[in-house]
Amino acid sequence: MKGSNGFMKNFKKVLMLSAVSLLTFGAVAPVATVNAASVKTATTGYQSTKVKASYSYAKKMLVKNKSGLSGKATALFSRKAYPATGATAGYSDFLLGLKGLGYHFTKTQRQRVAKNLVLNKKSTPADLANAIMGLKAIGYNPQSFRLAGTKKKVNLVSALYKKSMTKQTVNVQSQALIAVSMSSKFKRPSTAKFSKTSLSSLIVKNQQSNNGWAYNNTASAVDSDTTAMAVVSLARGKAGPSTVQSALQKGQSYLKGAVYDNGAYGYTYNGKNMPNANSTAEAIIAFSTKQNTLKYANSAFKDGQTASPLRAMLGYVNKTGSIKGAASQTLGVGQVNLANAAYRQAQKKHSVYSLN
């Protein structure tokens, strides 16, 4: 498929860069208090095998327009299957992950996305944020996007800015902040209901006493997924207030403490830890937002930790490229690829979310 050769060439270059970057960023150098001999990290060879598998699986999903390659799969993009949005959950991360790993979308694939996305006055802030990220990833301009079946062009960035964020969940607030921060060309309208600084401050206000964030803004429900998204959004928003920068650092500290012994991340259910690929991917993306935390993606930094987050996440990648235990392969493969891309882009001092 178009783009696959380019990916492997770029990937090999990045792996070479990674070896040099280890000296600069300490990407696999464990913290002194951790026994290096007992820690498994993701070697370049291990990364190559696993990333190639998940990347290839995602390409096949896109070609077939399926949310997976099993008989239970549904469409990736379909107005009939998803009348409210036109796409399955997680599609923006899925497209961003492919883009970040060097994929070149075909005209047919781009048109399929544009034709199926449902965007109207009922679209939520989350719907708009996902559309902005997904369309930007495949090469469309979200500030001048022609809706399917019409001659009208709409400005999705402006539409998102005009949505109130005060009563949205932290996850939605984070999605919105990431979306409007993707390009320096994205303009805030004079009628906007928020700015990147005010939205950053709103997210900071919802940080809990243990330095994490929760979907329902309570300390007892703090989780690594929500915290990772908040960290990424604050890093992308680049707001100047010291309170924002302090919250960002505290959020990174929470993630360092939340890692499981096996290097993975997850959630707690009925008192039991539930490690999974998606939560681990979110943490890796968060660590990849800053050069001084990039090293934690592929190292051990907590007593008792036996593997790095990157090694743990790639361990969920099957030989076929699908993700073990994923609620859907769109979410599983999409976020794993996005984490792989974020880690590699960060080694080149670039963000997977920067698409000017």
Automatic annotation (TrEMBL):
Signal sequence region: 1-29
Taxonomically, the superkingdom here is Bacteria
Keywords of the record, alphabetical order, are: Signal
InterPro entries documented for this protein:
Terpenoid_cyclase/PrenylTrfase
Its protein name is: Fucose-binding lectin II
Taxonomy-wise, where does this protein's organism fall, top ranks first? Answer: Bacteria, Bacillati, Bacillota, Bacilli, Lactobacillales
